[in-house]
Amino acid sequence: MSAQDVFITGIGQSAIGVRQERHPLLLTIDAVREALDESGLSLSDIDGISTYPGKASVPPGFSPIGATDLIDALHMDVRWYNGGFEITSQLGAVVAAAGAIRAGQARHVLCFRTVYEAAGQSRPDEFPPPRPGRAEGEMQWMMPFGAFSAANWIAQYAMRHVKKYGLTREQLAQVAITDRAHASLNPRALVREPLTLDEYMESRMITDPLCLFDCDRFSDASTVLIVSASDVAQDVKCTPIRIAAMAYSCHRHSWDQPEWVAAYATGRELWKHTDYTPADVDTVQLYDGFSFNVLTWLEGLGFCDVGEAGQYIEGGHRIALNGELPLNTFGGQIGAGRLHGFGFAHEAVTQLRGLGGLRQILGDPKVAIATSGGGPLATALLLARD
């Protein structure tokens, strides 16, 4: 073990729901308490906080709780904290925490992501929608062209795979079908009913070739990860999971200009920082805001060649719970709910600790990958149980 090693020592998650009445700050505190209880740490041990994207009122409920909200609510005494949009996607908050620990600025950093979009959009008096008639920031390059949703941005890359590499809807469907099958085994998942291929094929198109079941859905929840320095990680009562490697990248936010999404550069970069290879990975928890994101991560990380992800997942057997590369074993965002990136790291730790219950993968998993984003922004974590 190196003094530079960083570990995930505690994980926690609130209830996941749609239009929850419980305040988002209380959901966050629920997740904090679970992470502390699991790790055996106390609130006084936490000397850092990292979150994505910080408090943001637009769109409604997207990020209602920031670092300072949690510091004030729990009367925390921290030496370092971080929160902002301009990082390499959601799990970039974990990357920032690892950097702070390696720099000696903190020993135990509480990382969190709280979403309240389902409740926020249903209660406009409490969470006002953005003012109409003006496109600001990055959206000024998208909304005038009708590209209102990330579904529009991702669909163009999916359509290239359809036209250039022969991707079929039946192949793409395996992501959603697998997510929903795994979500049915997760007691916290938002949607626990399995999905059939017929149901998928008959669903309405959102933005060709992405249909309704290719998209995640708004939910209300909070997820917490505690990241710790190596010399204190062994003091926790649960199994610490080492962050064996990290990679990240940022491309232009313009929706129609980049040739490849950021998952490709990030995937290639990850293997430069470790002796592990794709063959060593026991499970992948890959960002699926839209099902096609998963295909770009599989290709970018080198599990298959560019353009071959459709064939790689065809039939769903390879990515099933008992397959050679179990995918999104908690249900992903399509099945378990839009936890906005943090759910993937939470599940990777759960699997490596052997605590998945009915959804626990076979054997003795020791290496996992968790990702977030993958469009203009991307982050990948390689996690290992030593």
From TrEMBL:
GO terms for molecular function: acyltransferase activity. Residues 260-380 form the Thiolase C-terminal domain. CDD domains: SCP-x_thiolase. Signal peptide: none annotated. It comes from the Bacteria. InterPro entries: Thiolase, Thiolase-like, Thiolase_C_2. Keywords: Acyltransferase, Transferase. Pfam families: Thiolase_C_1. Its EC number is 2.3.1.-. PANTHER family: ACETYL-COA C-ACETYLTRANSFERASE (PTHR42870), NON-SPECIFIC LIPID-TRANSFER PROTEIN-LIKE 2 (PTHR42870:SF1). This is Thiolase family protein. The lineage of its organism: Bacteria, Pseudomonadati, Pseudomonadota, Alphaproteobacteria, Sphingomonadales.
